[in-house]
Amino acid sequence: xxxxxxxxxxxxxxxxxxxxxxxxxxxxxxxxxxxxxxxxAGAIRNTVWDALHGSTSSRPQSDLDVIYFDPVSLSNDxxxxxxxxxxxxxxxxxxxxxxxxxxxxxxGRDIPAYDSIATSMASWPETATAVGAxxxxxxxxxxxxxxGLVDLFALTLRPSPAASDPCAYTRRxxxxxxxxxWPRLVIMQTDGHMKC
Length: 196
What we know:
Elements: H1 6-17, H2 20-30, E1 38-40, H3 42-52, E2 64-68, H4 78-85, E3 91-95, H5 99-107, H6 117-122, E4 132-135, E5 141-144, H7 150-153, E6 156-157, H8 168-176, H9 178-181, E7 186-187
Parallel strand pairs: 2-3, 6-7
Antiparallel strand pairs: 1-2, 1-4, 4-5
């Protein structure tokens, strides 16, 4: 993963800090002290796409995906803690050190364990979804985006080149109907030879 574009990072921070519920969620997750954690996926993507379409996110429109990376301890009670702290939100907490297990089952292929949170995120279906943010102990905002931030800000839906399930992107396009909520999206089609 190369360095992220500084200007896009600054835009992302402005959007997040201007979204009170998202800042509240980041502060709640920070208090758990999970190893290598981020609030990621739809919480970040949807907030940015709303902002780029001239609307504000008054509350999350989907689960709040909290990810972290802990290859030592696979037990997880963080979800219950977050639900108790902020019960108005739907939380989903996932240790990215263990996702290769269910990815292997879902795809019918043996997917090796990931060595970092970045490599795990790179396997997500879309590049614009593989973006996470967190707050440091001192309040600085930090980002992770293994495919960069360009697609997110260009309103481009593109399949991840490292997706664990190459057909997930096509399925999600049908299920999510993102173009109805964000009509300016540019949707990249998959390889026509792939049977999904």
